[in-house]
Amino acid sequence: MANQQMKDRPKERIWTRDFVLIVLANFFVFIGFQMTLPTIPLFVEELGGNDQLIGIVVGIFTFSSLLLRPYAGKTLETRGRGYVFLMGLAIFVISVGSFGFMTSITFLFMVRVVQGVGWGFSTTASGTIATDLIPAARRGEGMGYYGLSGNLALAFGPSLGLALTSIISFKQFFLICAGLGLVALLLSSKIRYKKVERVQAPAKLNLYEKSALKPSMLMFFLTVTFGGIATFLPLYTAEKHIEGLQWYFLLYAAALMVTRTFSGQLYDRKGHQAVYIPGTLLIMLAMVLLAWLPNSLVLYLAAILYGLGFGTVQPALQAWSIEKTPLNRRGMANATFFSFFDLGIGFGAIVFGQIGHLLGYSSIYKAAALSVFISMLLYFFFIYKERRSLAQQG
What we know:
The protein is mainly alpha-helical and 394 residues long. It has a single domain (14-193, 207-389), classed as MFS general substrate transporter like domains (Growth Hormone, Chain: A, Up-down Bundle), CATH 1.20.1250.20. The protein has helices spanning 2-8, 17-34, 40-46, 51-78, 81-98, 105-133, 139-165, 170-188, 213-239, 245-260, 263-270, 276-292, 296-322, 330-359, 361-393. The protein is globular, with a radius of gyration of 20 Å.
């Protein structure tokens, strides 16, 4: 009888006023960020940098973001969601707006560190705010919808960034990106943030949330691939005289959005086992195609496969990372997840910069395919350990 009442109970709403606001705020800050992804390497090149310097400039951003995420996670619990989110967005706006005034790679490097701080605070907070607002029974579905905002930004951001930098100066371009971040800041100021029981700051800063470690480690080896794509694909396609890079990002984002219509619900019903392996296989195949890359058609196919794979796996792993986390530790769980997310991108950008310089761009994607394979092996190891533990308890 009780089970029947649960089934008859209407679903709790996902699309509340505040959820719409966090989705819109996330969209605008992400589109401002995504516009810079393929253009920062071109800006570094214009300032006289080579592949190694490009990798370092891209990578240092993610590492500074990574270092601040544990502090952001703690501050979310001690100072509240709104404080961290608004501060992070403000730092992001100021740093991105100043890019166009940089005249040397050294100064750009320093400001990228500051940008990483703002990005680390804002994205850790926004993911936590979204999980606060989504009903627990529909978390996978809700995180899929939330992720659509970032996917839509990805659909237009890189292509729009490349188009704009071809007709306006970098100074004007980066001011536009900062303006989009400012829109996100204004929208986020209207959110009614859910109050959580604030905890007293611990004497020692916790660097991670233990319950989020497994999915976060798996995410690391997958986002390594993104470091290679976002940083070096514009240079790789130019070297091979392959056109249509704008279509790569559009197709990738379209495929991501398709997965959001079912992957979150599939996770809610059947768990991570139903989405992880198919998704990682698609990502690996995409990396193999990029390593080969004979023409534009293969580039487009790789974009679709990568989008389907990454869009299936990422929201599931993020939902998994907070599945068994107490409410007052969700901030740290999101900080842990995005720390590994950032670490993968930064590690990929820096290491692949060295690989590309020594062995050529094609080798970047061979190494990326290997990273995906390591993630798969690690997943099977986790499943084996979990089942063995359950068997011993039984």
